[in-house]
Amino acid sequence: MNLLSLTTLVVGASLLVAVVYKTWYALCGPMARLPGPWHSKWTDAVMTSHWLRGSLCQYVHSLHERYGPTVRVGPNQVSIADLASVKSIYSTRETFIKADWYKNFMLDDQQNVFTAVGSDAHRRRRKLLAGPISDSSLRVHHDRVGKRVRLAVDGMRDEMASRGATDVLRWFTCLAADVVAELTFGLPLGMLERGQQHDECSRHLESAVQLGAWRTAFPRLVNLAWMLPFSIFRVAYESAREQTRIATNCLTQYKKLVDSGSKPETLFRNLYKAAEANEMTAKDICSEAELYFLAGSDTTANTLSYLVWAVSGHPKIQETLVSELRTLPAEGWDEARLRQLPYLDHVIQEALRLYGAAPAPLPRVVPAGGAEVGGYWLAEGTWVGTQAYTMHRDPTIFPDPRKFDPDRWEQPTKDMRDAFMPFGRGPRICLGQHLAAAELRLMTASFFLAFPDARMSSLEGMSDEDMGERNFFVMAPRGRRCLMEAASGLSEPPTTSEAAFVRTGVAGHGAWTHYSIGLAGRDGDGCGEGATVVDMEDAVGPPAKRRKRQPTTTKTTKTTATAPAGWHETYEAVRRMRSPGGLAHGAPVDTMGCERLADRQASAKDQRFQTLVALMLSSQTKDTVNAAAMHRLKTELPPFRPGATAGLTVDNVLAADPAVLNDLIYAVGFHNNKTKYLQQTAAVLRDNWDGDIPDTIAGLTALPGVGPKMAYLCLSAAWGRTEGIGVDVHVHRITNLWGWQQTRSPEETRRALEAWLPRDRWHEINSLLVGLGQVVCRPVGRRCGECELGQRGLCRAAKRS
After folding, report:
1. Interior angle at CA 773, CA 771 and CA 776, nearest 5
2. Residue 403 appears among annotated catalytic residues
3. Regarding beta strands 97-98 and 371-373, do their DSSP bridges make them parallel or antiparallel, or are they unpaired?
4. Whole domain around residue 623: which residue ranges?
5. Helix/strand/coil for 517
6. Is residue 394 part of a domain?
7. Cβ-contact 191, 198 below 8 angstroms
8. C-alpha distance from residue 278 to each of 271, 282, 542 (Å)
9. Cα–Cα distance between 450 and 511 in angstroms, integer?
10. Which residues, at least 6 apart from 84, have a Cβ–Cβ distance to it below 8 Å?
């Protein structure tokens, strides 16, 4: 027998032994009797698939609904939903230690308090971190959190006034990230002051969470991302690197503060002391900083968004909550006072039950010698875990579990309290639970006092579908947005220089009541350090005395067929500023506007389709980002069949793998939804319009994801016909600032403008005002001192800038 034959024989025998053992273990092993789907005995591929799609929680929950409290979900994995077993698995004795699965979240093998598997390593880290972030220690930081909350509320109000709705998920993310940065490093990131998420920071925060899913599923592949042709691995890997860079920069800024003689009280004070004593390295602290950013930003923001959405969808709950909040003392209240409000607490607990940000399984390892769990004997080394998603939806513990019902917490049972685990359970429970609770209390109270009749907006197609649950260990709205609006409109703010007020207003129950957040018994901040743009714009007179409650006049849309006085002079001044050599010439829209992004070498039909796609991608997206995405689509979208031309055509969009299409437009806002809309639209065009785009407003607005603004702009750019004004947020915001109308949404603005603006101006007004809004009359940081309208007194809003 030669060497090759011997090797073949050994390999073959080894494979045979492996197959026999695998078959025996699946059919006769110690876990063979466990209930579960047939495939779980052989593979965990189905679990991995749901994990990567963000639907693992729902899948595991469906298995429990079918098979009971103990389910085999993989060859060596068991999910438990039995309360007695849960207490045993997550007991303080830590008999069941964390699974090695958590190590896959590490980058460069640098562990932190979350990824530490061994009990000793975890205890050392937790001992350093637990004290400063305990409930009692956090009280000294509540004023700082309160100031951040005020900035968020002011930003939301300003966005509602200009856009007609506000994306609370965006503002809550800015708030949570700023709070974590300020309390950890002494300085906020400044995301709230800029009025938007830091593009890079927010994008990497989101993708870094998805990285965890890919790392746990394919740890070796992600580590080799730079060698692989799949962009998902590269993006995930680069995102984690960027997150490290952000944390490193924050640590550098903190060191500068210390070197300058300022040493702010922070949540990392014990870590810094340990580093000074050479007990920790800079990499150790950086790893903990990355964890704090990830665990403290998206989690709180997502739960707050779900809370606001759920409450606003239940008018009776909303009315009860607002009524309780209005019992707060008008002279001011702090976080401690909020703890005395029972219904507020019930609402927050119910939001955490249904929409807690960390509902995924928390795997542990059966200890040496095996253990009985859920009535079954499990061999040592078996992974066993519980997910809060299922525990919180157990109908025997929470009757009618899918119903959002804060009243269930008025008299909670012992089982309810024991099953409630939104922050985990046992010695590994989330360190940041007390900070999250404080933020939830302060922001919930402030939001519903400021917007007592808030409701979900339908602007830009926002719907309950956007709030569908997606879970890459952290639960988030599927649409990555949560647009809210004030049902009765926004009443005018008071002219006051006191910045420490939450403003509230609802018809029939008092106008802008002043509430001082976290500063009870203190004077307002004034318009100096810490005042927001809105604060300074509103400070046009001396400080006003606290007003008595007066009935609010509900703001309604005012439209008229009469042209505003002086409109022509204003319009011509804008034209001059937008002309070559003018202050607003050369705006991004002038070179990268949607009407300029079609491939001029393509057929007329394809050019029209490309113009429509550019408009669909442009919503909530910068022109530079949109232009880059369009370039990738025109050059990289694969042909629908061999020999066909690559690029952006109806056939290529229809044939594209959604993942490939999504990858090409990943940088645009709400790219997941837009991927879906693009393929749905392409199907409609193929089936109903012979592959071309409609040439009517009715036909265009019937397409998925296309609203009136897009339709009018598309009809003009693609077909050369102007039948209406394309009103985006710039046109809506600026014309309201001028006082040309008082409207709550772009669509209302369109109708108001078309009632009087000469038809020959309809085509150009969008481009004129978008360019003005991008360069001069910006949403944040308006250049009124340089603007001709401000200099000549043609803009009434310029007086407050």
Report:
1. 95
2. no
3. unpaired
4. 567-800
5. strand
6. no
7. yes
8. 10, 10, 54
9. 10
10. none
d(CA 684, CA 694): 10
**List of residues 6+ apart from 551 with CB closer than 8 A:** 507, 508, 510, 511
- CA–CA separation, 270 and 5 (whole Å): 64
**Is residue 795 one of the residues assigned to a domain?**
yes
What DSSP assignment string belongs to 643-707?
TSPPSS-HHHHHHS-HHHHHHHTTTSTTHHHHHHHHHHHHHHHHHHSTTSPPSSHHHHHTSTT--
Residue tagged 């002038």 (tokens)? 590
Q: Is residue 737 packed enough to be buried (19+ CB in 10 Å), middle (13-18) or exposed (0-12)?
A: buried
Q: Which two tokens stand for residue 16?
A: 């045979």
Q: What is the separation of C-alpha 447 from the centre of its chain, rounded to a whole number of angstroms?
A: 17
Residues in contact with 63: Cβ distance below 8 Å, sequence separation at least 6, in sequence order: 36, 37, 71, 73, 79
Round to whole Å and give the CA distance between 729 and 163.
5
**Contacts for 188 with CB less than 8 Å, ≥ 6 apart:** 148, 178, 179, 181, 182
Contact between residue 432 and residue 113 where contact means Cβ atoms under 8 Å apart: no
Q: What is the CATH number of the domain that holds 654?
A: 1.10.340.30
Whole-number pLDDT of residue 234: 65
What's the confidence (pLDDT) of residue 507?
30
Q: Please tell me which of 408-422, 483-497, 513-527 the model is most confident about, judged by mean pLDDT.
A: 408-422
User: Per-residue pLDDT tens for 390-428?
Assistant: 999 999 999 999 999 999 999 999 999 999 999 999 888
Q: How far apart are CA 386 and CA 87, in angstroms?
A: 10
Burial class (CB in 10 A: 0-12, 13-18, 19+), 480: buried
**Total of domains in the chain:** 1
List of E strands, 116-248: 166-167
Q: Per the structure block, which two tokens stand in for 540? A: 């046009």
Q: Is 505 exposed, middle or buried (0-12, 13-18, 19+ CB in 10 A)?
A: buried
What stretch of H or E contains 72?
A: strand 70-74
Among 50-64, 182-196, 356-370, 403-417, which stretch is predicted with the lowest mean pLDDT?
Answer: 182-196
Q: How far is CA 508 from CA 263, 331, 549, 550, 721, in A?
A: 49, 21, 10, 8, 46
Residues paired with residue 72 on neighbouring β-strands, in sequence order: 78
The catalytic position among 127, 676, 709, 799 is 709
201 is in an annotated binding site: no
pLDDT at 129 exceeding the cut of 80: yes
Q: How many CA atoms lie within 13 A of 728 on its CB side?
A: 26
Q: With contact defined as beta carbons under 8 Å apart, do 348 and 377 qualify?
A: no
- HSE, CB side, 13 Å, CA atoms: give it for residue 95: 16
Q: Which residue has the tokens 């997502």?
A: 302
Region of 37 (left: φ > 0; alpha: ψ -120 to 50; beta: rest) is beta
Q: Is residue 307 part of a domain?
A: no
On whether the CB atoms of residues 72 and 40 are closer than 8 A, the answer is yes
Top mean pLDDT of 115-124, 232-241, 379-388 is at 379-388
Other beta carbons less than 10 A from residue 431's beta carbon: 24
The answer to whether residue 110 is domain-embedded is: no
CB 397 within 8 A of CB 417: no
Bridge-based pairing of strands 376-378 and 371-373 is antiparallel
Q: List Cβ<8 Å contacts ≥24 apart for 46-55.
A: 47/73, 47/74, 47/77, 48/217, 51/213, 51/216, 51/217, 51/472, 52/213, 52/214, 52/217, 54/213, 54/470, 54/471, 54/472, 54/478, 55/470, 55/471
> Can you read off the two tokens belonging to residue 744?
């709550």
Burial class (CB in 10 A: 0-12, 13-18, 19+), 485: buried
Name residue, tokens 């698939």.
49
Q: In the block, which residue shows the tokens 């503002």?
A: 171
d(CA 247, CA 240): 11
